[in-house]
Fold:
Amino acid sequence: MDIFHKCAQFTRAKEAMQAGLYPYFLPLEDTEGTVVTARGKRLVMAGSNNYLGLTTHPKVRQAAREALERYGTSCTGSRFLNGTLALHQKLEQRLAEFVGKRAAICFSTGYQANLGVISSLVGKRDLLVLDKEAHASVVDGYQLSSGALKRFRHNDTDHLDHILRNAKEFEGVLVVVDGVYSMGGDIAPLPEVVAVCRRHGARLMVDDAHGLGVLGNGHGTVSHFGLTDEVDLIMGTFSKSFASLGGVIVGDEQVVHYVQHHARPLIFSASMPASCAAAALAAADVIESEPELNRRLWDNVRYMKAGLDRLGYNTGRSASPIIPILIGDDLRTLQLWKGLYDEGVYTNPVFSPAVPPGSQMLRTSYMATHTAEHLNHVLSAFESAGTTLGLSRCHSEDRPRKAPVKQSAA
Structure:
């Protein structure tokens, strides 16, 4: 059979396009963070990972401009050969200090960071143990490794304990959990996870892509729980709170050194451009020097969580700026997405396999730079679109009266 036969058989996306319900690869013609323009239509962005709004922060923009002028547009080589700048090493030192570890190594993307650390550490006689809702990049890291894989039920530390208790035949075990889960917005029970790992001698890595900049006064989920010395490896991305592009693994010097010399996604990929490294460096400084951004973010998160709950939406276990709207049906999820889009709100519909069947959702997320007007517009759109579809159970007069203090963009 022709290997391209499967391409002709794939019709689902085109059918959604023809029905006017295709939500992906929507080209943004303009964006300033909280508001975007798509196909000439202005929308409040309620689906970005730009939690602190730093993509438009003047200090972050200026740092990127200066690096562009000094170093040009690309490093044109891998970190292993000609692609390491002194700026990369400065960023690594800064991030190790930011997180509270001894060493760090930066990758070109967060996805590559997970691929690199897992594929380099998990060998033939080793076991990788993942939470069932761990990010796809962690699962793909296993595919590049030569080890075995077991998965435990989401946030179920008793199940994790059972797996580790029966893993005696393996030479080494690495447990990986997310700090903040990217779909449900819930937080890993790290104190319990740490206790189980220590009981069985397993090493622990936390993918904190959505926790850095958000929890622990910006220093992440591990810091939030006071467990920096108890977690072995911490992974972060720059494409969220750090307003850039890239990823990092932070840990003990000996382990980071090993990863640096064995991670194929690092050795065989071009390094992150200087402008991205400079932007991430500036973002780290802003996170620490302007703590009011983090406070504004949480004010907005609490306001939106309360408002969406009052409208009758199921927001699951969210305890972060990621607030899912659980629907459980493909068509109704697409219809709500389209209704919100028509009302001027950008959200992200999520289907299987990104979530289990029956857990279809709209993934919404909020920023420190959203104003009260932005947030109230989003709630009004959810009320209007939800009422039409029978998903919203109450009216605007039931909404909380007190809006967040009006903010100007940072």
About this structure: The chain has two domains: 17-46+291-398, 56-289. The first strand starts at residue 28 and ends at 31. Residues 395-402, 405-410 have pLDDT under 50 and may be disordered. Residues 292-310 form the longest helix (19 residues).
